[in-house]
Structure formats: structure tokens, C-alpha cells
């Protein structure tokens, strides 16, 4: 029987001459060839089981290793303004790379953290002017910038994650502003057909269906208009719609309830509309592929699963169940796990496209 090399850490089969495991990243260089029967498959933890299940919806039945330290390692390194400017000029007819030039390496976004720092600095100055210098005219500015901070910073992160670099920051900003407001208007239109009074489990589910459907309409519109066929493109478009929705909704709540809601909604924005819509956008692009957007796209099993998952996350978020902060923390973690699986699917798609092009 021929010997086959397997990773001693996760059991993944290894290509001849491989130095690192493609599944878990374990260094296998210089190791002896081992037989599959001698490999001990470690017991999967909750995250491994969850990523394997979710990854099955994308067409691959194996777990996705989560390495947040590696993904965000560039955040803590020094970067020049020239590097930031180089990231912002992608997506034009002259700066969009060919498929061969697109990287399928693990994404390492960092620019979003600098954008978030700028927002924090601006908010600090506004707070100081209001509460130290009694500059009440800065009140509206505080609401606007605070509402924008986390959603827009997350949007920049998804802009960086789109390694195709084929959607410009100008186009992303248009989708964020026009699409965000349009999704709110669409949602308000759908609310004309339902009545929501006191929040309960049932009304939370109704709100989730209405709002996610309203945002889906705009996500589908822009995916069809741009005619994108890549998962990471769909994720970026969805994130732009969700970030716009979150920004304008938070500003509305702050104008009605006061600035006290800004901190809570700012923190919880790490796992709400921007991520929910990014999931839906990626799923819609996955279902669409290179075909035109049609009714059959929305009947695709993978899309339906991810869309229902986003509705469920939204409904549970609003529902009066367990302690709010415990519930929010769990739901934010779940949303991020789904996003990481879809990012992996997007990078896998790049590798497949490049391999098919060379044959």
C-alpha cells in the first residue's frame, strides 16, 4: 500500500512537497511520511463543528480554521500613508488587477483600524467641545460621526477583504449612501403591510423578516446592476447596504432618544446590520455565480440557508429573551464565524477560478 502524507495536527491530506498544511497551517516541512491509519484525528470543538456545518452550505464539507491573530496581524504593524492611498485607488479601469494577479492568500486587513481611530479621535473632540466648552451646536455632529464610526470602519474592512479589487471606493460609498437610505425606505414601505406594537418573540421575527427583506431587495439590485459573480464582491456590496442602514438607523434613534444610545449601538454594531447584510450579499453572489440574477437564484438552497440565518440572528437580537449583553455577545460571535467561513469560501473560489483558467 502506498504511503500518503497527512497533517499530524488535523489529519488533512498533504500535497507532495508541501511545507504547511493547507487546512490548519501547521508546519509539516521535514516531517516523515505517515500513513492515514496512524493519524489521530483530534476531537472537534464547537467552533470546528460550526464552521464545518456552515462551510457545507458553501459546497465544501470540512472545517474552517479560525486564526483571528493572523488575520488582524497587520493592524498592529506600522503602515505609511502611501500604503493607505494605494488601497483606496483600486477598482478603477486602470487599477483593477487581472484574475491571475488576484491573491488567494489569507486576508489581512488593517486600514479599517486607522479609519476607526480617526473616528474615535473626532468623537473625542466633539464630546470635549460639548461637555467642556458647552458647544451645543456640536450635538448633531456627535450623533452623525458616532453613528457612522463602527459601520463605516467595518465597511472599509470588507473593502480590503475584497481581494479582487474591482469595486472602487467611490462606488462603495455610493452604495453605502444611496443603497443604505433606499433599504430603509424599502423597509418602511414593507412596514405598511404589517403592524408592530410591543416587542415580543413574534414581533421580533416579523421585524427581522421585514428589515432583512428590505435590505435584500437593495443588495439584489446592486449585485444585478454591477453584475458581480464573486463571493467577496457580494459580501462587500451587502456590507455597504448594511452599514448604510445601520448608520442612518442609529442616527434616528439618537435623535429621538438622545446620545446615551450611541455607545451601546456603536459597540453592538460590530455584529448587526453590516455583518448580516454581508452574509446575505455573499450568499446571493454564491448562488448567482456567473449566471444572470433570476428567480432561481433566490431558490438556491445555499442562499436560502444563509438568508434564513441572517433573519434568525436579527430576530433573536430583538427578541426579549436572555440578558441583552450575553445575547448580543453570542450573536456577534456567531455572525463573525459565518463571515469567516464565507471569506474562506471566497478565497477558495479565487483559487478554483485561477486553476480553471490555466487549463
From TrEMBL:
PANTHER family hit by this protein: PROTEASE PRSW (PTHR36844)
Boundaries of every Zinc-ribbon domain copy: 6-27
Keywords for the protein's UniProt record, in alphabetical order: Membrane, Transmembrane, Transmembrane helix
Transmembrane region(s): 115-133, 139-163, 175-194, 200-223, 230-248, 268-287, 303-322, 328-347
MF term (GO), any: peptidase activity
UniProt name for this protein: Zinc-ribbon domain-containing protein
Pfam families per the UniProt record, alphabetical: PrsW-protease, Zn_Ribbon_1
Amino acid at each position: 500500500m502506498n504511503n500518503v502524507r497527512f497533517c499530524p495536527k488535523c489529519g488533512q491530506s498533504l500535497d507532495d512537497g508541501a511545507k504547511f498544511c493547507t487546512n490548519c497551517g501547521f508546519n509539516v516541512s521535514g516531517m516523515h511520511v505517515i500513513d492515514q491509519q496512524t493519524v489521530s484525528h483530534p476531537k472537534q470543538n464547537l467552533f470546528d463543528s460550526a464552521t464545518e456545518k456552515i462551510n457545507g452550505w458553501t459546497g465544501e464539507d470540512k472545517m474552517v480554521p479560525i486564526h483571528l491573530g493572523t488575520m488582524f496581524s497587520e493592524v498592529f504593524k506600522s503602515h505609511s500613508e502611501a500604503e493607505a492611498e494605494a488601497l483606496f485607488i483600486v477598482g478603477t479601469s486602470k487599477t483593477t488587477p487581472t484574475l491571475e494577479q488576484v491573491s488567494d492568500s489569507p486576508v489581512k486587513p488593517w486600514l479599517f483600524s486607522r479609519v476607526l481611530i480617526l473616528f474615535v479621535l473626532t468623537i473625542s473632540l466633539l464630546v470635549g467641545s460639548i461637555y467642556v466648552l458647552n458647544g451645543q451646536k456640536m450635538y448633531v455632529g456627535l450623533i452623525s460621526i458616532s453613528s457612522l464610526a463602527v459601520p463605516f470602519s467595518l465597511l472599509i474592512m470588507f473593502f480590503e477583504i475584497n481581494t479582487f479589487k474591482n469595486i472602487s471606493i467611490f462606488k462603495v460609498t455610493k452604495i453605502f449612501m444611496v443603497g443604505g437610505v433606499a433599504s430603509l425606505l424599502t423597509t418602511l414601505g414593507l412596514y405598511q403591510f404589517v403592524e408592530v406594537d410591543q416587542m415580543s418573540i413574534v414581533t421580533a421575527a416579523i421585524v427581522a423578516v421585514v428589515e432583512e427583506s428590505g435590505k435584500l431587495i437593495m443588495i439584489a439590485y446592486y449585485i444585478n446592476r454591477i453584475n458581480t459573480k464573486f463571493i467577496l464582491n457580494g459580501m462587500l456590496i451587502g456590507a455597504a447596504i448594511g452599514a448604510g442602514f445601520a448608520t442612518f438607523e442609529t442616527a434616528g434613534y439618537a435623535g429621538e432618544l438622545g446620545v446615551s444610545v450611541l455607545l451601546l449601538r456603536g459597540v453592538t454594531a460590530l455584529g448587526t446590520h453590516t455583518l448580516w447584510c454581508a452574509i446575505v450579499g455573499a450568499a446571493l453572489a454564491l448562488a448567482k455565480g456567473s449566471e444572470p440574477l433570476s428567480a432561481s437564484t433566490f431558490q438556491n438552497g445555499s442562499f436560502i440557508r444563509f438568508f434564513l440565518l441572517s433573519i434568525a440572528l436579527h430576530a433573536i437580537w430583538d427578541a426579549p429573551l436572555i440578558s441583552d449583553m450575553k445575547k448580543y455577545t453570542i450573536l456577534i460571535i456567531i455572525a463573525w464565524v459565518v463571515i469567516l467561513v464565507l471569506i474562506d469560501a471566497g478565497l477558495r473560489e479565487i483559487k478554483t477560478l485561477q486553476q480553471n483558467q490555466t487549463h
